[in-house]
Amino acid sequence: MEQVTGLLFGHYSEDVSLLLFEVLERFGKKYSIPVAYCDDFGHGSNHAIFSIGRKAVLDTANKTLVFQ
Q1: What is the DSSP letter of 15?
Q2: What are the E-state strand segments in the chain?
Q3: By the 8 A CB rule, do 43 and 10 touch?
Q4: Cα distances (Å, whole numbers) of residue 1 to 32, 43, 52, 53
Q5: pLDDT, tens digit, for every residue of 38-51?
Q6: CA geometry: angle at 62 spanning 60 and 4, to 5°?
Q7: Which phi and psi angles does 18 have, rounded to 5°?
Q8: Where do the H-state alpha helices sit in the chain?
Q9: Which pLDDT belongs to residue 32?
Q10: What is the CA radius of gyration of the chain?
């Protein structure tokens, strides 16, 4: 976890529990990292691929992910 600087959690199920959002929020606070949930990323009909090692900035306040 020392190398994790942010977490982008993608859609994986039709039913999203409110508990998931609470867990993600606690995780971000525990490790002092930005955490975001995105319906249009992950498994299913909308896929995205991130290159391993590519630098990016996740800004949860502005809801942006910018690749460097």
Answers
A1: S
A2: 7-11, 35-42, 56-59, 64-67
A3: yes
A4: 11, 24, 16, 15
A5: 866 656 666 677 77
A6: 25
A7: -60, -25
A8: 18-31
A9: 93
A10: 12
